[in-house]
Amino acid sequence: MTYFEKLHPWCLVRLLPNCQRIVVARFRKRNDADAHLRVLQRLVKNRTFVIVFDTEEQPRLPQI
Predict the structure, then answer these.
(1) I need a labelling partner for 34 at 20 to 30 A (CA). Which of 11, 15, 19, 43 fits?
(2) What is the average pLDDT across 31-58?
(3) Pairing between strand 49-53 and 10-16?
């Protein structure tokens, strides 16, 4: 996870078939993500978007 991604944990995600997804945009605040989602839902009516909080970090290897 990059530094930018750590600073912008709220993601606007487009859902695709076969459990795939695309991160459309990243935000620092949930309110910003909600506002962007409302605009996208008005402009693109036949797509599914969701907001997720991304905390995925690389798994740590065991220390020897």
Answers:
(1) 19
(2) 91
(3) antiparallel
Domain map (residue ranges) of the chain: 3-53
Q: What is the pTM of this model?
A: 0.76
C-beta of residue 36 within 8 angstroms of C-beta of residue 23: no
The beta-strand segments (E) located in 1-64 are 10-16, 20-27, 49-53
- CB 13 within 8 Å of CB 27: no
- Exposure string for 6-42, b = 16+ CB within 10 A, e = fewer: eebbbbbbbeeeeeeeeeebbbeeeeebeebbeebee
Q: Are 33 and 10 in contact (CB under 8 A)?
A: yes
